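Researcher: I'm preparing a figure for a lab meeting and need a structural model of a single chain. I don't have an experimental structure, so a prediction will have to do for now. The sequence is pasted below. Please return the structure as tokens so I can convert it later.
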Amino acid sequence: MYMTQSETDVQTPARGRVIAGHHAENFADDQLTTDPFATDTYRVLSRRLYHAIFERIDLERLQQLSGEQFRRELALLIERILDDEKLPVNQSERRRLVLEMQYEMTGLGPIEPLLNDPTISDILVNSHRQVYVERKGRLALTPIRFHDDAHLMRITEKIELMNRARWSMRDCPMVLA
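Model: Understood. Here is the structure written out token by token.
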């Protein structure tokens, strides 16, 4: 999928430029970005929390809230789940999990932080396990991962819906994917 950058979106250069399925190979180790939360254990915990939220969430009630109220309610729900299930997480992990779940519910999931990074010009998604970014003309592998192919497809569909709405407003019948 490829999204053309909006002329009005100056603050978030990568928003609108997501590329999927392109090959990016032969990158040096120094191009790899590290993330202390990019462990299999943390990913399993994140996925478990994601499913627990959907078992407990009242979407109808939450849809009536403002964006900030929604994020606050979601954070409280996540804290309750972590406490109820006695999940072994420290404060830093709690904050990160809350933020990630907010990205899932209100944004484009794991790529949301990349979209808000002004140093990133392109995002390339090869698979649910392989996400690259372009900074200053150089591609670098990120630690960003989707849960699985279904998760990647849900985010792809969100992007497509956003593009369709934007293109419809411009009377452009075309969708690039």
